Amino acid sequence: MAYITGLTKDKKEWTPQFITSIDEETCIGCGRCFKVCAHSVLNFEEVDEDDSAKMFMKVENPGNCIGCQACGRTCSKKCFTFEPVVA
């Protein structure tokens, strides 16, 4: 199966891994992933409970993802799931 690939500056081929989901049960809403993403892929979602200020991240604009996985590398809880896109 062929996947979308890119080239590094040194002309090495790599396969970007695009965000598919965030585990809402594991996410603590710290916002590290939100701060590191320069493409507005993520946004906060508030838990709808009585007088709760708990938040977690959600994938708001998956089409903006460039497959860099910076969000997943900064996540201390390892909430992110990634996969390549078939060409």
TrEMBL record:
GO MF annotation list: 4 iron, 4 sulfur cluster binding; metal ion binding
Domain of life according to the entry: Bacteria
Cofactors required: [4Fe-4S] cluster
Keyword Signal applies: no
Keywords: 4Fe-4S, Electron transport, Iron, Iron-sulfur, Metal-binding, Repeat, Transport
Entry-linked InterPro entries: 4Fe4S_Fe-S-bd, FdIII_4_nif, Fe-S_Ferredoxin
Pfam families linked to this entry: Fer4_7
Annotated transmembrane regions: none
Domain spans labelled 4Fe-4S ferredoxin-type: 18-47, 55-85
PROSITE patterns, sorted: 4FE4S_FER_2 (PS51379)
Physiological role: Ferredoxins are iron-sulfur proteins that transfer electrons in a wide variety of metabolic reactions.
Annotated PANTHER family: ADENYLYLSULFATE REDUCTASE, BETA SUBUNIT, FERREDOXIN III
UniProt protein name: Ferredoxin III, nif-specific
